[in-house]
Amino acid sequence: MTSDFSWPELYFIRHGETAWNAEGRYQGSKDIPLNDTGRAQADRNGLLLKRLLQKSGRNSEEFDWYVSPLSRTRETMERVRAAFNDTPIPTVASDDRLIEISFGIYEGQLHTELSSGIMPIAGERDASFWYFRPPEGESYDDLATRILAFGQALPRRAIIVSHGGVLRVLRRLIEDFPPDKAVNWFPPQDSVIHFAGGKATVYPAGTEWDE
Q1: Pairing mode, if any, of strands 10-14 and 64-67?
Q2: pLDDT single digits (tens) 25-52
Q3: Which of 143, 149, 157, 187 could share a disulfide with 167, CB 3.0–4.6 Å?
Q4: In whole angstroms, what is the distance from residue 126 CA to residue 183 CA?
Q5: Sign of the torsion angle spanned by Cα atoms 37, 38, 42, 45
Q6: Could you tell me the CATH superfamily of domain 10-210?
């Protein structure tokens, strides 16, 4: 499932940790704020992004900046932007298409509460989970439709702060990840992901890339 157009270069950051992430709850479209761990992750990711751009000879103004409107992503973006306080940054555009996949009536429940039958946990899903739609929620295929529309509207390369489900879908659309691999991959919250040439490179904070 690759897109029928060429995606521009992207730098992607998933929002930092929330209390629901730490507790192992399905979060989805619920507006849950960052916890202290998540704020520290966002700060480190901002510094890492700045270093990656510097090492590649790029600057922040060569990219359009986009964020999901939920508070955990907006605060992450604010903390990422703080690393560029000595650099001009384009206005950040909030885009509803970047909101996390909705898990419907299951949002707020523990992964382990549902894993025995209703909804398998990541790591135990098969390819059919790409099309699984919880009551009042979305499937990953539904999410892919709006992320594809977002990508087709991009005028140039972009920096994006969004969610783990969105990152899974981007790897499916851009890299042609098989659906079973996409829904079982664990999107990091302590990394910057660079999409270029149809491939993703994950740069974890605190590694040699962050020096």
Answers
A1: unpaired
A2: 999 999 999 999 999 999 999 999 999 9
A3: 187
A4: 8
A5: positive
A6: Phosphoglycerate mutase-like (3.40.50.1240)
